[in-house]
Amino acid sequence: MTAMITTATHWVNEYGSTMDLWQAGDGAILGVYKSSTGSTGTYLVVGWAAGAAPSAQLGQAVSLSIFWRSLEGGTGDASWHWVSGLGGQHLLGTGGQPDTMPLNHALVATTEFVGLAGPGTYIDKLLYRAQGAPPSDLAAPEFAGKGAGTDPVNGVWQCREQPDLRLKLQVTDTQYGFVEGAVIQAGGSRPIRGLTDTYAQAAGVALQGLSVTAPIDDAGRTLSLSGSLNRRDGVLTLTAFTSQGTAPGNTYLQTTLGALSFRKVA
To answer: How many domains, the chain?
Structure first.
């Protein structure tokens, strides 16, 4: 984290999977995810929450990235190369009900998991409910910034559909696949952070999963970009979720969906 942690929350979705998220004062999020579906394990989460804290009238936009390589180690499987991007909002609970996070989910399968799923992007919507603080024995992940080095995603990427949109990406921790940089638009730049499959090249996987997030404007919107770099043709293809806070009854308007592709220019 680059700023002092201000909130820490334990979230549970309808599948029983959990996310423990720590949010800093600048909106940056770090956390851990424990899955109860598919492969089980503990996974890294990074992201952003934008604008003011949620109120009874307006939610707070949230974008998250997950890299499905278990932090616990052990024997991996095909899903250890996958990533996810999530976009939605944090809604304040009322009438004794807990806070919720309805999140659109893009699961990026870059390899075939025999008997489960083929390569592709799988879209889902998940509802998380707050259940107090993270367990007392669980701490926010930390990054020492060690292990940074060359990686195919490093560099400046220009969007083919929106030429004034560029991504500046740098892997700053190869062990965890942690990515930092900036999203650059006509109006300026915003910090970006996310996760990538730094193990793809060594494993001979042609598609390197990438999921990054950013706060993108003063209106309190956040961006989630998730997809993969085709290391054979150099094209970065990403699903874009742009999220905003809405009134609790208008959550169907919280996130727009787009598809973007990028080529490296520097």
So the answer is: 1
